[in-house]
Design goal:
There is one protein chain. By secondary structure, this protein is of the alpha/beta class. Helix content is 37%, strand content 24%. The protein folds into two domains: 2-75 and 194-231, Periplasmic binding protein-like II (D-Maltodextrin-Binding Protein, domain 2, 3-Layer(aba) Sandwich), CATH 3.40.190; 77-188, D-Maltodextrin-Binding Protein, domain 2, CATH 3.40.190.10. Strands 1, 2, 3, 4, 5, 6, 7, 8, 9 and 10 form a ten-stranded mixed beta sheet that branches. Strand 1, helix 1 (10-22) and strand 2 (29-33) form a beta-alpha-beta unit. InterPro entries: ModA/WtpA. This is Substrate-binding domain-containing protein.
Length: 232
């Protein structure tokens, strides 16, 4: 059984598929790449049985006929968090609360730094869109540093390429050289629902459906919480 996902869920899926194997379900070979790349591979007909991506990306694939009808299943919610460079060995676990009190404080923080790290995929797109909506694209645009596909924002921070960074919390937790300040405030929150679906190229649709059902189980929800995701 083959599955493809974005980088954001790769650690969680590694544990989930291992647990599924222990439960007697088919072994899964997971390919984790940038979300845009993953969607393009599925759209091109690459032979995968399952795809796990941001919900909106999956629904576009479904609309274009690359997903088995009715199989899109929301799995977890991921929040975007804020981090800064740190001398610590690794970041701590999930922080309590938001990094800033509100969007005004967040904007002030962005205007006070020269290099702002952000990721590829839906969370990075949403951050740029928000900066544009604030009317700060001209001022902050030259300061934006986008991580290369497959490279965590934490790497930019740890290597001194960015002074502040934004990425899904699950991607920042446990990374060396960064300190997580918290998630974005409510009035500037960037939340992504990741979902799974069976692809039309699957060679074992019933097996893929069984795995997808496991990803929605109570056992999967407990594992998701340990990876700083919120089950949905």
């Amino acid at each position: 059984m083959k599955a493809i996902s974005s980088m954001a869920t790769r650690h969680l899926l590694g544990d989930l598929f291992a647990a599924a194997g222990d439960a007697g379900l088919p072994h899964v070979e997971l390919t984790a790449v940038g979300g845009v790349d993953a969607a393009e591979r599925v759209a091109a007909g690459a032979p995968f049985d399952l795809v796990i991506l941001a919900d909106d990306a999956l629904r576009r694939l479904a609309a274009d006929g690359h997903i088995v009808a009715g199989t899109v299943a929301p799995l977890v919610l991921s929040q975007v968090a804020v981090a800064v460079p740190s001398e610590s060995v690794a970041s701590a676990g999930r922080p309590e609360g938001a990094a800033f009190a509100d969007a005004d404080e967040l904007r002030a923080a962005l205007r006070a730094v020269d290099r702002i790290g952000y990721s590829t995929g839906p969370s990075g797109t949403a951050l740029v869109r928000m900066i544009t909506a604030w009317g700060l694209a001209e001022e902050l645009g030259p300061r934006l540093v986008q991580a290369r596909p497959g490279v965590p924002v934490a790497t930019l921070l740890a290597h001194g390429e960015a002074e502040i960074g934004f990425q899904q919390l699950s991607e920042l937790v446990g990374q060396p050289g960064v300190r997580i300040l918290g998630v974005l405030p409510d009035d500037a929150a960037i939340d992504t629902v990741f979902a799974g679906a069976v692809t039309t190229t699957s060679t074992d649709p019933p097996g893929a459906r069984a795995l997808l059902a496991f990803l929605s189980s109570a056992e999967a929800a407990a594992l998701a919480s340990t990876h700083s995701f919120t089950p949905v």
